[in-house]
Design a protein that fits this description.
globular
């Protein structure tokens, strides 16, 4: 599997098939027992998560994982001391785009609630904060684990818009997502995982023409349900 700048790669599959474990292994939270993870040609599978973050990766974890005892503003400022000041030294890396102001302009709901504690936010607002926290460090690659989980249809649309904008700015996204419509609407390439192995790799259009794969591994009876 590979992810290129300005590309969204989606990992799909039923619960318990290894999607979150894959994300956690890439970010060093669940050390890989075998295999190689390379970032810009450098093996990173033995690095600590903070070392991986310094290289230009960020994570929107499953379950949001914001600090609920801190305010919205404190959550945003927490990762921005060293990492947001990180200047891309690798040729081809996107320039720094995100600051506190630009992130808050992207998420006006958060702008209105800067002094509120994380525990005072709705589920959708907590997810917006988790995404904003990942963006503010100006990552080259964002790992997103179920960003639409528990969100209303309106917030799901907003998440899709944010991913398209991030992609246009040259960032790469590795997306784990249960919402098939959302994933296929933003992804350039799709992998389906089953019991820790990829059983399909291709474009969203190619997946939609494989009803057997959709049915067996995603429980979708046909492409008509994707639109």
């Amino acid at each position: 599997m590979a992810v290129s700048p300005g590309q969204v790669v989606a990992i799909l599959g039923r619960n318990g098939m290894g999607k979150t474990t894959l994300i956690r292994s890439i970010f060093g939270l669940t050390p890989a027992r075998q295999g190689v993870v390379r970032y810009r040609g450098t093996e990173i599978q033995r690095l600590a998560p903070y070392e991986i973050a310094k290289l230009g990766l960020s994570l929107v974890p499953q379950g949001r994982r914001i600090f609920k005892n801190l305010s919205v503003l404190e959550n945003l400022r927490l990762p921005s001391s060293f990492l947001a000041a990180r200047k891309a030294s690798v040729k081809g890396a996107p320039p720094d785009t995100w600051s506190q102001d630009s992130v808050l302009n992207e998420f006006p709901q958060l702008k209105e609630r800067l002094s509120n504690g994380g525990n005072e936010l709705s589920g959708g607002e907590q997810q917006m904060l988790a995404i904003a926290r990942a963006l503010i460090v100006n990552p080259d690659l964002i790992l997103m684990d179920e960003p639409s989980e528990g969100l209303s249809p309106l917030f799901v649309q907003h998440v899709g818009q944010i991913m398209r904008r991030v992609k246009q700015l040259g960032h790469a996204i590795l997306l784990v997502e249960q919402n098939l419509r959302l994933a296929l609407s933003v992804a350039d390439h799709v992998h389906i995982i089953s019991s820790g192995r990829f059983v399909f790799s291709g474009t969203p259009a190619e997946l939609e023409t494989n009803p057997d794969v959709l049915n067996e591994h995603l429980g979708v009876s046909g492409a008509k349900h994707l639109h």
